[in-house]
Design brief:
Length: about 250
């Protein structure tokens, strides 16, 4: 129990140090975490709403929420993937499991994500956008998002540590995922014949249900929510299992 508490405290301290270092020396500091999705919003909104004439209610908020979720997933998986190598000097000199490096990186990015979501909620209130009062469903979906992102992070971290070229492959995959996921468009545009496979991705379902819950006051049926939960936990457990299998050999590759 004492050992577990020590690791928890160490994870927190490393996460706090990462959080401070990320914005140290930056004039705008944490503000960049908000500016990034807004700049993406301006570009994508201009293209899809004004040029391609996308007709989706509350489209700026539809797009912004998708971008916020995407940035959390993309930034977290990429930085967590590199976390073991980035903290190699600590792992070589201190007897701690490599998972601490991944969890501390994940935690500090989770803090940024939570702050961004709070700002998003405040903006909805300021601009008078009616949002859902089903806070428990929203929190549950965010928990599933965290599980999926952490599972993928735990899966990719050992791969990057052993095969550095995997980082370039992951960059390409992230670009593909951005356009595959319903971030800029509605999932209803996907042909019905492909819909089953398209919805097999839990991240797709989470984005859809978050928008439905927050912007459109729609609630997914129980079977859809249970299926999303099953997919999310499966990805998480695969990531945990793979990482634990690889963990003992990771220090050798630093």
């Amino acid at each position: 129990m004492h050992e577990m508490q020590k690791y928890i405290n160490l994870t927190y301290e490393l996460a706090r140090a990462d959080f401070k270092l990320k914005y140290y020396g930056s004039f705008t500091g944490l503000l960049w975490s908000f500016l990034k999705p807004f700049f993406m919003l301006l570009i994508l909104y201009g293209v899809f709403f004004h040029i391609l004439k996308v007709n989706i209610p509350y489209y700026p908020w539809f797009l912004l929420l998708g971008i916020i979720v995407w940035n959390f997933f993309a930034d977290t998986t990429k930085e967590s993937m590199q976390s073991i190598s980035a903290k190699a000097h600590i792992l070589r000199n201190v007897n701690i499991p490599p998972v601490i490096a991944v969890l501390s990186t994940f935690l500090h990015l989770l803090w940024t994500f939570v702050i961004t979501l709070v700002v998003f909620g405040i903006l909805l209130g300021i601009f008078g956008v009616p949002f859902s009062g089903n806070i428990f469903l929203v929190l549950f979906l965010l928990m599933l998002l965290v599980l999926v992102t952490l599972g993928i992070s735990l899966f990719t971290a050992p791969l990057f540590t052993r095969f550095r070229d995997f980082g370039h492959l992951w960059d390409i995959l992230l670009q593909m995922f951005f356009w595959i996921l319903p971030i800029t468009y509605s999932h209803t545009l996907v042909p019905q014949s492909y819909r089953v496979w398209y919805l097999a991705n839990p991240l797709t379902r989470i984005i859809i249900y978050l928008r439905d819950s927050i912007l459109y006051h729609n609630t997914p049926d129980v079977s859809a929510l249970l299926y999303t939960t099953f997919l999310s936990f499966t990805l998480f457990l695969i990531g945990v299992f793979f990482f634990m299998r690889q963990q003992k050999m990771l220090i050798e590759h630093l």
